[in-house]
Design goal:
By secondary structure, this protein is of the alpha/beta class. Helices cover 37% and strands 24% of the residues. The chain has a 7-stranded mixed beta sheet, sandwiched between helices. The longest helix is centred in the middle third of the chain and has 18 residues.
Length: 705
Amino acid sequence: MKIEVIDEKSPYLQTVIKLGDANKKTLGFFAHNAFEDHARRGNIFVAVDSQGDCIGYLLYRYVPTHKRHSLVHLCVDSGHRGKGIAKLLVDNLKKITKESQGIGLHCREDFKLEKMWSRLGFVAKHEKPGKSKDGKLLTYWWFDNGHPDLFDVVPTEKLQSRLCVVIDTQIFEEIYTDKSMIFAESKSLFADWLQTELELCITDEIFNKISLLKDSKEKDKQRNFAKQNFTKLRSQQNFDSVVSSLSRLLSDKGTAIDELEVRHLARTIASDSQVFVTLDSKLLKLSSEIYENFRVSIIRPNDLITQLDELRRKLDYQPVRLAGTTQLKKIPVQKGGEDLLSNYFQCEEKGETKAEFQQQLRRFLTESDKFESWVIREGENQLLALVVYGRQKKHELEIPMLRVVNNPLSGTLVRHLIFKSILHSARQQRQFTRITDAHLAETVMTAIQETLSFRGVTNGWLKVNLAVTETASELSIRLANLSSSLGAEYLICRKLAESLNTQDLIKDIQASVDIERFLFPAKIIDAEIPTFIIPIQPKWAADLFDEGLANQTLFGAKPEMAFNCEAVYYRAVKNSRGLQSHCRILWYVSGTQKEGKGKGYYEVESVRACSYVDEVVIDKPKELYQRFQQLGVYKLSDLDLVKPDKYGNIMVIRFSDIELFDRPIPAKQMREISEKSLSFLCPERISRQCFMRVYNLGIRSEIQN
């Protein structure tokens, strides 16, 4: 089978005319000279079988005033229908018209071809009476090429400020039906308090569902309801490939879903939303597999409401979506690159002009003794971020410019850059990090305000970062001295000093962890914060947090975790030894693992990092995976290797603020430091004295007495 464009001299033209005449009851009358005219313009192509016979054709025209194409005839010989020829013809039209706004067509409603046009990717927009004597209704079908349309673009601010979720067709119908008590779960999405949190969205497939209704007035009523109450998302140009991939996944899992619902989910995947709300038990059962393949969360309404904060955070922080990117480099900015960088990093949304951006960056490059400027680059051409460090003050690292490109992962990247900047400042024995960029994008502002311990001051955002291990009293004195010597802008130091002087602080685990993390990377020696050593295999350490180990492998560090300021680790519930949230962890990387016995790694069988535990959860593997999959490198099948308890549960540890040690502490030295025997086979609690000595050894190159 081949598709071939014909002209007025083609031997296939007469066959096309014959096919058109034979099917004029459905195609309508079309003059022979009109066929010739369209052929002369190259607006007819035919399907030719292996015997060289023309067995179908497609005729179209271009409407320049609207920058769209119109499908006039789609006709397949009656003996060859049902073999996918119509799809081949339409796919070819999509291919050659992809630069236009899209393809439109009119089709009589009584022909009952709604399912065919839906399968071909078209959307039913509206009906109008035809010009025939009986005025049969014509449905206008539209295939959108995904180009921006001034009259049909969702305001970006709306989608950025709320959690954007797509509802399935059943929920749409239940919300539309005025029976609140019967469909309470679906109706709960319309609760007043959710309106500032959620943006309920639909895709074009809702309108295809509506087109199947028999009552024209009811169609109009439902269309108006959809347009007035929901945001319609546009699908991107990869919609057809998403449909194919999703259909294959469902087929492999033996799951039968109505084809319209498959397309509706596919349009969601190909849109700006990453949450699909459904009551379909089959889809909910496959939620983990769908997320793993398409990065769209499948959830039911009640769970959406109870997990709203977690979902918002999940979408803003998605390190897993950087999978496969292995060519990231941090490169110093060279003079002369200001014009190119302005194309990526000028913040027009905050009123910054190109001249202002270039002038400021030029100053940083000229005064290289005071500033260092870096870009994060993927491959050879793709710029991801720009960060400038100012070293004018001994006690403070300034960040006068912090920019990231606008993409769904910019929140992840900016958190990584700020976290690394704090560590960089502390390791240089500076006590503060200050962000002074006057043109911070919303992504950066959100990261500063929601995730990190910065406080707004007169000139930017200030973070205290003390690279010390001291008692609460010693820290209090240090902060009080800083406050008195540096002036009013550092008043936060005095408040922290007062908090550390509270008599019961060191006994209050939660309060101690909070203030320690606020002063990160400072450690309070006499606080009663529990500390555990947890063993981890080299493979998982390399993937989750240890870029040193990852760089020992052929492909180097995986950016999806290299950018990660937090992660999750799965283990058995048995022998957890009282492990709990709000504690510290020392990560012991073992010397063996099931795949490869740890071969290829060096400096293992040692403690290599420190972090905090944010949460410890025990549940069924699938429930844990669905909840935490965005923070890990795991597949659902990996959790099958974790031995469950008698109830079928396993444990997940969510941890963050990961500090890699400059100097790994070998097992032999760990046993010498510890007051008790260590097995390194399961979580083991250690004393405050042991933790502080190990931490100081790892972070600094010499023993601290």
